[in-house]
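pipeline: protein-struct stage 2 | run 1193 | NAD(P)-binding domain-containing protein
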Amino acid sequence: MKKIVIIGATGYVGSAILKEALGRGHQVKVIVRNPSKLILTHPNLKVVGGDVTDTDFLSRELAKSDAVISAFNPGWSNPNIYDETLEGYGSIICAVRNAGVHRFLMVGGAGSLQVAPGRLLMDEPDVPEKLLPGIRSLAKVYTDMLLPEKSFDWVFLSPAANMFPGQRTGKFRLGKDELVADEKGDSNISVEDFAVAMIDELEQEKHHQERFTLGY
């Protein structure tokens, strides 16, 4: 059992990660903007309300945890998603460093994955224009904030191109910097299996200061 903090546990991906972590017996503290949104109760769950951009608050709450998992996202419909993603992760990464947490796992984006040599998914013509600010902000967190970071052990887990509500199968393929796709070229993963991969990594610690990805 690990003592972990999950940031953004009321969101689409964060809620799946929370469920998986509790299901495996971990002790979880969640930090959410609005605690009333979290209706789940569990003896191993503690809920703390707060703003991730308050670095001092966050540093105190992350202290003495074995790992931090962040599913922070300002919201895909938020017109300020690019700036708010960078501001939020700037604070989160600083707080992880301040708190002396050894292990940081982040819900990354698929946009910075390679679809061919020299070609990134986010540069493909069929990517919806309205999603690009959020996609590019997550890519920038990876390249500009995490890649240079050497003071703690971090992981950036990129999903497949399409992540959807589905089944928890526990059966998927892992990759590193290239999009994982099937023989038809489709790249898919359920949010439940994404959560499995994230908690697998929490427990097994197979990746260190790097990105990895998954798909069927």
